[in-house]
Amino acid sequence: MNVEQTTKWLALFAAKINDNKQYLSDLDSAIGDGDHGMNMARGTTEMQKALEEKQPDTLMDIFKLAGMQLVSKVGGASGPLYGSAFLGMAKAAKDSDDLATILEAGLEGIQKRGKAVAGEKTMIDTWVPVIAAVKANELTKEVVEQAAQSTIDMQATKGRASYLGERSIGHLDPGSVSSQYLFETMIEAGVINE
Amino acid sequence: MSKLGIVMVSHVPELVYGISRLLNEVAKDVSITIAGGTDDNEIGTSFAKIEEAFEKNEGEKLLAFYDLGSAKMNLEMAMEMTDKEVVLYDTAFVESAYTAAALVQAGAAFDMIDAQLQPLKVK
Ligand SMILES: Nc1ncnc2c1ncn2[C@@H]1O[C@H](COP(=O)(O)OP(=O)(O)OP(=O)(O)O)[C@@H](O)[C@H]1O
Ligand SMILES: [Mg+2]
């Protein structure tokens, strides 16, 4: 992956979050506190502004700036979680431009922060299958969407939705959908060829 | 013995403000700093407010209490970036903050306070 693709990727991601913020918050209303879309849009808007202003020119600096903006602007759990993902990716991008390596470092960042594993109905359930598909050279938008959809049948055991217990089953996890947008725009930006 | 302080983080500004009033009544000499709500005082938590609560606290060793989810995550991020020693408690928010405040006021040592807090772990 290179700087040009990554810059395009994050711009498309910010736009997609903004276009779908109401939908993301609606998903969060069903099993959480109804703020996921607004939280994310606040963060990605500031992230995009900062990226355009500072025009970082290495992968590491792009991810670092994005991560710091998300940590400080989002205001919900997704702030430290996506923030830690991007900061982890920044660290990995220091010595590598390999997509799978960088995404794995992002996932590690999320897990270090949120202590969740696959199957707990969180954004991790989008990340894990996506990274496996990147490694196998099999990533498509269908794979990404399928990963997010897999959270419908899960019971939440982390995050706000966990307070609902079995009542959380049958709903799509909002963070898995914002992560779906992250990986769909990654494909759209040509970071990886479908 | 390092001077102890208390930090509280919640999603709603009024919540930590209210608890700090409760604590101040029994712990008027203890440094208690709070971080409630987002930067715009909306419901949520703020990394910057937590950093400030660490900064402004007169304690050298801080006992940190929180309400839910992202409060803990933001606390842990801030802990990685501060020079102060911070101990995070996954304990019942009001009960444990109150216990800590009363014991710090009474001059109890950290180890004794820490032991009193352990049974209050709920998350
Ligand atoms: N421990 C966790 N690990 C991984 N992802 C998590 C965790 N907790 C929550 N999430 C993800 O975050 C999403 C919710 O993000 P949102 O911005 O709405 O935060 P929130 O739950 O409202 O935050 P808060 O903790 O402040 O209430 C969930 O849909 C889930 O995907
Ligand atoms: Mg929410």
UniProtKB/TrEMBL annotation, chain A:
Keywords from the UniProt entry: Glycerol metabolism, Kinase, Transferase
Quaternary structure note: Homodimer. The dihydroxyacetone kinase complex is composed of a homodimer of DhaM, a homodimer of DhaK and the subunit DhaL.
Pfam families associated with the record: Dak2 (PF02734)
GO biological processes: glycerol catabolic process
SMART domains hit by this protein: Dak2 (SM01120)
Protein name, per record: phosphoenolpyruvate--glycerone phosphotransferase
Leader sequence segment: none
UniProtKB/TrEMBL annotation, chain B:
This enzyme's EC code(s): 2.7.1.121
GO cellular component terms listed in the entry, alphabetical order: membrane
Record GO terms (molecular function): phosphoenolpyruvate-glycerone phosphotransferase activity
Catalytic reaction equation(s): dihydroxyacetone + phosphoenolpyruvate = dihydroxyacetone phosphate + pyruvate
Membrane-spanning parts: none
InterPro entries membership: DhaM (IPR039643), DhaM_N (IPR012844), PTS_EIIA_man-typ (IPR004701), PTS_EIIA_man-typ_sf (IPR036662)
Entry's Gene Ontology BP terms: glycerol catabolic process; phosphoenolpyruvate-dependent sugar phosphotransferase system
Enzyme class: transferase
Gene3D superfamilies for the chain: Phosphotransferase system, mannose-type IIA component
Superkingdom, taxonomy of origin: Bacteria
Domain PTS EIIA type-4: 3-123
Alphabetized UniProt keyword annotations: Transferase
A Pfam family reported for this protein in Swiss-Prot or TrEMBL: EIIA-man
Quaternary structure annotation from Swiss-Prot or TrEMBL: Homodimer. The dihydroxyacetone kinase complex is composed of a homodimer of DhaM, a homodimer of DhaK and the subunit DhaL.
Function according to Swiss-Prot or TrEMBL: Component of the dihydroxyacetone kinase complex, which is responsible for the phosphoenolpyruvate (PEP)-dependent phosphorylation of dihydroxyacetone. DhaM serves as the phosphoryl donor. Is phosphorylated by phosphoenolpyruvate in an EI- and HPr-dependent reaction, and a phosphorelay system on histidine residues finally leads to phosphoryl transfer to DhaL and dihydroxyacetone.
Official protein name in the record: phosphoenolpyruvate--glycerone phosphotransferase
